[in-house]
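Q: Predict the assembly, please.
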Amino acid sequence: MRKILEDALESCRKYAEEGRVANYIPELAKSDPAEFGIAVISDACHLECVGDYDKPFTMQSVVKPMILLMALIDKGADRVRSLVGVEATGKPFDAFNYSDQALKREHINPMINTGAIALCTLINGDTYEEKFARLLDLTRKMAGDEALSVDEDVYLSEKMTGNKNRALAYMLKAYGMIEDDAESVLDVYFRACSIKINCIGLAKIAYILANRGKDSRTGEQVIPPEYARYVNAIMTTSGMYDGSGEFALNVGVPAKSGVGGGIMAVVPNRMGIGIYSPALDKKGNSLPGIKALEILSEKLEMSIF
Ligand code: GLU
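A: Predicted assembly structure:
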C-alpha cells in the first residue's frame, strides 16, 4: 500500500501546475498549491500516510456530509427529505439558476450550498451556537480528533465576503424553506466550512462511513447504518460537484470534495481515504487529488460499479 500511495503522490504532483487555489474566499488564496498529502485506512484499521498528510486545511464542502448526517440524526430521514431533495443538479455548487419561478426542494440536494444551508436549520439546539457545537462534536468524534477547531481567519474571510451564500440563504427564506434568521443560519454554515482538519481526520470519517456507521477501532456504532447509506448514496451522485458523473466513471466510489483542496473518499466495506491538495480544477475539485484517486482506484480495484 505504501508504495502505491508514494507512486500516486509523485506521479500526480505535476497536476498542481494546471490547477488553481480558490480565491473567491480571500483567505484561501494564501494556500500553497504544492501541498499534497494522502491518508488511507484499510483492513483492520491500518493507517498509511504520505506527503503532507498532517497539514491542516479547512473542510469547506467536505463538511456537507457531516451537516447531512447531523440533520438525519436529529430530525430523521423523512424530515430531511421534505426540506432538501436528493437529485443531482448538474450545476455548480453555488448555482442560482433554478429553472422554475419558485425554489423547491426538488431543485436542491445536500451537497450543494443551498441544500447544506437549509439543513443547518434542522440541527438540534436552542441557539445557533448550540447547533454548531453539536456539529463540531460529531465531526470531532468521527475524525477521532477532539482538537478540531475553526480556522477563525478563514471563517471571518468567508463571513465578510460570502454574499452569494447570503443570497442563497435569503432565497431559501423568500420561498419559505427556512424560517430562522438567515444570518444565524449562515453563521453555522460558514463556521462549519472553516473547521480545520487533515488527511487522517478525513480518512477516519470515511472509514466509519465505509463500515456502515461503525467505528471499527472502537466497535462503536457511531451513526445508524441507514444514515451512512443515505450519505454515501448522495455523495456518489453529487459529491464531486458537477463532475460527479465523470468521477463515478473514473474512480467509482462515494466521495466529497471541498474548495479548500480536501477530498474524502469512501470505499464501502474496505477503505477510508483523505486527500489534500489545494490546486483545483474548474469545477472546484482538487486536481492532483482526483488524479491520485484515479490511480488508486485502478491499482486497488476500488470502483463499486
Ligand atoms: N465555504 C464554501 C462556499 O460556500 C464551500 C464551497 C465548497 O467547498 O464547495 O462557498
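The chain has eleven helices and nine strands. Residues 60-61, 93-94, 113, 158, 165, 193, 258-259, 284 surround glutamic acid (CB under 6 Å).
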